[in-house]
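Q: Convert this sequence to structure tokens.
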Amino acid sequence: MAQWILLIVAFLVLGHVPPGSSEFKRCWNGQGACRTYCARQETYMHLCPDASLCCLPYTYQPPPASKTRDD
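A:
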């Protein structure tokens, strides 16, 4: 009987937990993460929909745009 009560209490507590953390929200085609601050080995790419930073590891950065010469 005590196990059933414990199980019910556990479900009630889990029901009050928010569905997700901003730490796990993804951006930049799933390669980046939306965070308040970027880590040392990451760079800021753009803002996420919730106004947090889209942090992208240096290994996944897109190549720089090639400059075209208009001669």
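The helical segments are 2-15.
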